[in-house]
């Protein structure tokens, strides 16, 4: 008993109330609270924000951002990144429009576009895992390449004559409510990726990879293979978003979703995922994406220009990188201060 009493309190493991307090002070919980405050502020001060029609628009805007943010989260947790996702969306939509002009049915086109996205993701995966090139440099290159190919496929034309059955379903709601049809597959995707990341050995290995690849290899993880398939999945999901984007706006263009990659990365980092890998939660990412979309939606209702919205996205991206690292440094300094012996 005497030995336990003599142990400095700061050196004891956090249990009970201490663990709960640490959890409540975590970055992802803070983002959830900020998101709720922004939504309450917008609902109280911005005209039409709380309307059912705007709730539909907000969900439709959230869907492509969050869908791509899900596999992006897994990639960034491993310490990598994919900046080509928006260009994959654009190329998928362009190919979709070209195939439609060739007379293929939409039931054939959609799976072909998803396969195309998987192949584009595989290109990124090969360069990163086989050739060992930095993912930042690789995906900046393929960002430009894929967007250029989209322009080659369709030029500056737009394909707009899409089947009403599909476009109306994408923009429609469930039973006349304010809940869009796309909400159900979106929730299923969030739950699926959440289970994989937080409740399976694969997810745990991703965090280990982000903390140190050597430790992951020592533990039996096939690091290159896992990263390769993460890029394939990210490409396939991005292509699916390209299909969604085309049907939602009834327009296939090579410049669809231009700039979306920055919003995706901002959402992931804003949700508490470390840009250096090894740390983060999917639930924080969901809150980060909702915060970004809610803020942009409220500002649009206030007639703020798209250029200003880009500034907001950039500022949130900077904040999402800077503040978590500052908070970690402050907590570390405070912890060392508490462990230091009191002067005698």
Percent strand? under 5%
Mind telling me the C-alpha Rg?
A: 22 Å
Describe the sheet with the most strands: none
Amount of helix: over 70%
Low-confidence stretches: 1-13
Mean pLDDT, nearest integer? 90
Number of helices: 15
Quaternary form: single chain
CA-to-CA gap between the ends? 24 Å
Could you give the order of the helices and strands?
HHHHHHHHHHHHHHH
Compile the SSE list and pairings.
Elements: H1 2-6, H2 17-24, H3 27-45, H4 52-77, H5 85-101, H6 106-130, H7 135-154, H8 164-171, H9 183-199, H10 201-211, H11 213-218, H12 223-249, H13 260-270, H14 282-301, H15 306-339
Descriptive account of the structure:
The protein is mostly helical. It has a domain of 210 residues. It is 74% helix and 0% strand. It is built from 15 helices and no strands. Helix 4 packs across helix 10 and helix 4 packs across helix 13. The chain is globular.
